[in-house]
Amino acid sequence: METTTTTLQGDVTAANADCDKVISILEMIIDEEASSDDRSYFYKHLEECKTCFEAHNHQKMLKSFLKMNVKRKDVPASLISTIKSIVHETA
Amino acid sequence: MSEEKANQLSKEEKDRRFETELMPVIGPLYNFAFRLTLDEDDANDLVQETYLKAYRFFDYFEQGTNAKAWLFRILKNSFINDFRKKSKQPAKVDYNEVESYYNTDDVEGEGEMAATSDMRSQAVQELIGDEVAGALNSLPVDFRTVIILCDLEGFTYEEMAKILDIPIGTVRSRLHRARNFLKEKLEKYAKTMGYNADGNHDDE
């Protein structure tokens, strides 16, 4: 980690341009919508940049946090039978 | 009434296909309806209306194509066209009550948290669930919708664009803004517990 930080500091402008691009495709990566080129570019950058690495983790956690914690409701059995019976009676 | 053309399905065949292809989607569809209307009765009505429309237009549905996206699109259109007008109060979830109850717990600090029994952590899980639902429900409906479709139902951007009748670019920017909203509302979890409470197994 220490060594990568030093490398980054040596090339701050380039790193920032990379960060901008990485952040702009971050959500596409999380949503599995990014091209494979973008993906490899993205993950390569994460190996070198702690800030983007954490931004990625944070964004990913938000998504799984939602999925895990928004409870799903059971469909009332009466709804299913109502739909089926209306459909059967429809000419 | 049974004057059938050769390429039309018999009533029996149509009903059978309708049930096998479309009924399995009722779980996600009902949850979508509930998250839109925030009311169980309204969700019931909306889902029923959706299936009746789907039945009426079933001839236009190509077998084996994306039944889930098709039904979600019908439901979303029904919600916008017919439903919003006649629906009742928006939010029934008493978010404030949950929030104040939860906040009194904060004082006890981490020592108490670490010593959680199963029952207690289950109660905490439920509170988190209520609060996350509260945060989601408090979003404007367009924002709520993209979060549901993408993060809860796993639709692709392209499917979402078709369901919502908007360009993919709009899907992306709407998602981005919706997530920023949610992040703000859920920020305390990022600090107090981390986003993942680790109570459950990871699904990735």
Distance between the termini of chain A: 70 Å
- Could you state the CATH homologous superfamily of the largest domain in chain B? Winged helix-like DNA-binding domain superfamily/Winged helix DNA-binding domain
Assign an overall shape of chain A: elongated
Low-confidence residue ranges of chain B: 1-6, 89-113, 193-204
The interface involving the most residues is between: A-B, 31 and 46 residues
How much helicity do the residues of chain B have?
over 70%
What is the approximate shape of chain B? globular
Mean pLDDT across all amino acids of chain B: 79
Percentage beta strand of chain B: under 5%
CATH topology of the largest domain in chain B: Arc Repressor Mutant, subunit A
Total helices of chain A: the number is 5
Report the sheet with the most strands of chain B, covering strand number, pairing sense and barrel closure.
Answer: none
Number of strands of chain A: 0
Task: Describe this protein with a few key phrases.
heterodimer; A: 91 residues; mainly alpha; elongated; B: 204 residues; Rna Polymerase Sigma Factor, Chain: A; Arc Repressor Mutant, subunit A; disordered C terminus
Report what the structure shows:
By secondary structure, chain A is mainly alpha-helical. Chain A has one domain (2-89). Chain A is 81% helix and 0% strand. Chain A contains 5 helices and no strands. Chain A has helices at 2-10, 12-30, 36-48, 50-69, 77-89. Chain A is elongated and about 65 Å long. Chain B is mainly α and 204 residues long. Chain B contains 11 helices and no strands. Chain B is globular and about 60 Å long. Residues 1-6, 89-113 and 193-204 of chain B have low confidence and may be disordered.
